[in-house]
Design goal:
Elements: H1 6-9, H2 11-33, H3 39-64
Length: 74
């Protein structure tokens, strides 16, 4: 940890990176929906994208401290 910069030691640095990866994966999945003809695969990709968006929202709430569960105890 001594080699990490201050920004790398904070959770927000890491949560922002995860949010970006989740967004990239959602975009990839939604792009694949139009590339396959199997309706089950399309539904799987779209459902996966929706779940990942929910996770991304949880990361946003953590960063913004807008969710009660993520607020620090006083």
């Amino acid at each position: 940890m001594a080699n990490q910069s201050i920004s790398e030691a904070t959770p927000v640095h890491h949560t922002a990176k995860v949010r970006q990866k989740l967004t990239e994966l959602v975009d990839h999945l939604r792009g694949d929906v139009g590339k396959v003809s199997d309706p089950r695969a399309q539904a799987l990709f779209e459902t996966t994208a929706e779940v990942l968006l929910g996770l991304r929202t949880a990361y946003e709430h953590f960063e913004q401290r807008t969710e009660t569960a993520w607020k620090r105890a006083s």
